[in-house]
Amino acid sequence: MAMTVRQQKIVTVAVRLLAERGIQQLTLKNLAAELKVSEPAIYRHFTGKYAILDAVLDSFAEIAQSVLDELPADTMDPLTGIELFIRDRLERMNANPPLAKVMFSEELFQDDPQLAEKVLSIMHSHKVRTETLILRGQAEGKIRPEIDPTVLFRLIFGPLRLLIKQWGLSGYRFELLAEGMKQWRTIRDLIELPGNRPE
């Protein structure tokens, strides 16, 4: 469901509060103070904290899905498609560090079964779309066929998540995009069949 401009503003501030103070400090009182409105004003847009967290996760899912939807999975070179998705993730995180901190901190949502299930659903959606590219790459002789597609998915995106976490913990002290693409090139060298790239 599309959010109103005001709802988007509330979600943006909620993400910043989550990143800076943690989930316990994401209260309607603190949100209202940050937005310089009354708590009842927030209730006009969301029914409570849970609805705001739900909207935060929905916004994450929509961002990622919009990128995946733009990749023509049936015609684009599979490795190029994976690289474009990785680059987009890195660019978005670099442009919005609070988003990065929250998006890659699933532990923020694990205490609520419904929110945890939604996080898992988002991950599963990414896995399915990425595995489609991996399977086609294997069928076309571009990606090593002896490695299980799920294992390949984890080999590609596990290190990406770790890198983004390290970047956040370091206070954003290194170039995320440069390090991320260097990491991807190394992984690509490991999973790509020899002779796939043009000389």
Brief rundown of the structure:
The chain has a single domain, classed as Tetracycline Repressor, domain 2 (Orthogonal Bundle). Helix content is 71%, strand content 0%.
Question: How do the strands and helices of this protein lay out in sequence?
Answer:
Blueprint: H1 5-21, H2 28-35, H3 39-43, H4 49-70, H5 78-95, H6 97-103, H7 113-139, H8 149-169, H9 176-191
Number of DSSP strand runs: 0
CATH architecture assignment: Orthogonal Bundle
The CATH class is Mainly Alpha
Name the poorly predicted regions. Answer: none
Secondary-structure element order, N to C: HHHHHHHHH
Number of helices, where a helix is a run of at least 4 consecutive DSSP H or I residues: 9
Assign an overall shape: elongated
Helix fraction by DSSP (H/I, runs of at least 4): over 70%
What class do helices, strands and sheet pairing give? mainly alpha
Number of domains: 1
The named CATH superfamily: Tetracycline Repressor, domain 2
State which percent range the strand residues make up: under 5%
Radius of gyration: 19 Å
Notes on the protein architecture:
The chain is mainly α and 199 residues long. The chain has a single domain (5-191), classed as Tetracycline Repressor, domain 2, CATH 1.10.357. The chain is 71% helix and 0% strand. The chain has nine helices and no strands. It has helices spanning 5-21, 28-35, 39-43, 49-70, 78-95, 97-103, 113-139, 149-169, 176-191. Helix 1 packs across helix 4. The longest helix has 27 residues, at 113-139. The radius of gyration is 19 Å and the shape is elongated. The termini are far apart.
